[in-house]
Every structure is written in C-alpha cells, then in structure tokens.
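User: I'm writing a tutorial on reading structure tokens. Could you give me a worked example: one chain, its sequence, then its tokens, then a sentence or two explaining what the tokens reveal?
Assistant: Sure. Here is the example chain.
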Amino acid sequence: MDNPWTRLPAQPPFVLPEDASPIATYNSSAAPETMIHLEVPPLPYLGRPDAPILLLATNPGFDPDDVKRNEAYDNYDLKNLAHAPLDYPFYWLDPVLYDSPGYKYWATRVAALTKLYDAKRVANALLCVEYFPYPSVRAAQTPRLASQEYGFHLVRGALKRNAAVIILRAKDLWIGAVHELATYPYFEAKNRRAAFLSEANLGEGFTAICGCLDKG
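And here are its predicted structure tokens:
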C-alpha cells in the first residue's frame, strides 16, 4: 500500500491534502483541548514497521513545547514517516532527545522494560500505531480520514507476522477499523490513561513483550 505520509508538506500546516477539508470542518467547532494541531507534524506511527511488538493507541498528544523544533527533531520525524533506518526506530527513546516532551513521556512508560533491556533493543522492538494520526491535547470523536487506512494497513501486517499486540487505548475503535483484531490474541492495558508497559498494567502482555525482547 502506498505510504501517504511521504507526501506530508515540509512546512506548517502539517496536513495531507486529502485530510485538510475534514480537519478544517472539525476544528471550526472543536473545543480548545480537542482541537487538532497542525503546527507540528502528525505522528501516525512510531517505530519499525516490522517490529515484533505492536502498541495501539488513540492519537498523539500535543504539548506547546513540541513547537520548539530543531533540525535534528525534524530529521527524526521525516525518517520515521518514511520508514527510513534509525538507530532508535522508536525515536522517543533516543537519549539525544532527553529534554523533549515525547522522550519524557515514553521513557517513563517503558521504564519497566529499560530496567531489564537496553533502550536501543526496546526501541527496535516497538511499533506504536495511533488510531487518529494528528495531535490534540485531549482525544475526542474525530472525523474518519483517508490517511488512517495506512495505519490500519500496518496493523494488519503486524497481525499476519504474529506480533505481540497490546491495545493501550480505544479498543472498540480499533476492532471496528481492523476487524481481524476481534479474533486475534491481543493484550489490554488495565490502566488506559497511564499506558505503562509494566507487569502491573499489562499482566501476561508484559510477559509476551519480554519474550519478544529476549529473542533480540
């Protein structure tokens, strides 16, 4: 399937042409905390497209500090969207980005794993796909976009290779979009708000993740 994210504009507003109209309509009546932000690039997925562990989330969060971008930050975004090689494919675990909101968020969420495994190994084993690709402060009932189909394509690919699937949030939305999930042996986070990849939050899902990481 063609990857539409290679056609993302290089300057804001960061929105694909096929998504622009429904997003503009939605934003015209959205509350500030649920408004879709286009001044920073979307993050429809993060990590290697062939990673053995798949995380399913709702949509990227937005932090005003995300707007404070630099050239290195841009490079990570572009490479991730194009599935280009990175030392840390799940790039929010790259220590170079230690002072960014994304690093602070994800380093905390995977702390239980990085106590057991090297951070680079973890970053090479995870793929997170967001149900809705564009960021907002708080998730809401957003319009269905053409670009979402590529994320669903990545999820179907993960199911075909028997990836360990962890649904962090939006289970009903995910099963509605990717019907194959309904009969797939996925794991769920107990605390969907925090989404920690820990034994306490994932139970057997944490064991499955560790099994994937043990294989290297």
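What the tokens reveal: The mean pLDDT is 94. The beta strands are 45-47, 53-57, 126-130, 164-167, 187-188.
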